[in-house]
Amino acid sequence: MLNKEQIKEIIPQREPFLMIDEVEEIVLGESAVAYKNVSADEWYFQGHFPGNPIMPGVLIVESLAQTGAVAILAMEENKGKNALFGGIDKMKFKKMVVPGDRLKLEVKIIKRKGPIGVGEAIATVDGKVAAKGEITFALV
């Protein structure tokens, strides 16, 4: 299990944009499982939406991307690099994510060619799919 400080040693994101709280599992270059504890104090709930706080879908996707980045950037040969979005494909949002939810984030790297790769990503809350799709990344 990696905590936030250990995650910061792998990926460059910092608060308030560090979107994962802990990493449960890493298979270097292949997969990662992480969690985001969605708190009522999150900065984005002030405007999304007042009186009806819902985690923005783009931030769920960012949480998934950061999870995948942990799997790739923890590899010795990728230390000091960054993983940037190259694309988002087939992303579907199935469930609202609200304060108090514990978002489970799972990313499996399904393709790699040079600095480009694709991850199969799924976010769940209590075993129910919140979002799933594919994210393409580029290592720089």
3D architecture notes:
With 140 residues, the protein is α+β, with helices and mostly antiparallel strands. It has a single domain (4-139), classed as Thiol Ester Dehydrase, Chain A (Roll), CATH 3.10.129. It is built from 2 helices and 6 strands, in the order αββαββββ. Strands 1-2-4-5-6-3 form a 6-stranded antiparallel sheet, covered by helices on one side.
Helices and strands, in N-to-C order?
HEEHEEEE
CATH fold field value: Thiol Ester Dehydrase, Chain A
- Beta content: 35-45%
Shape: globular
Instruction: Write down the CATH class.
Output: Alpha Beta
CATH architecture, by name, is: Roll
Largest sheet: 6 strands, antiparallel
Helix percentage range:
10-25%
Number of domains: 1
Computed over alpha carbons, the radius of gyration is 14 Å
Strand order of the biggest β-sheet? 1-2-4-5-6-3
Mean pLDDT value: 97
Number of strands: 6
Number of continuous helical runs: 2
CATH superfamily: Hotdog Thioesterase
End-to-end CA span: 27 Å
Q: Which regions have little confidence, pLDDT < 50, spanning 5+ residues?
A: none
How are the elements arranged and paired?
Blueprint: H1 4-8, E1 22-27, E2 31-37, H2 57-73, E3 83-93, E4 102-113, E5 116-125, E6 128-139
Antiparallel strand pairs: 1-2, 2-4, 3-6, 4-5, 5-6
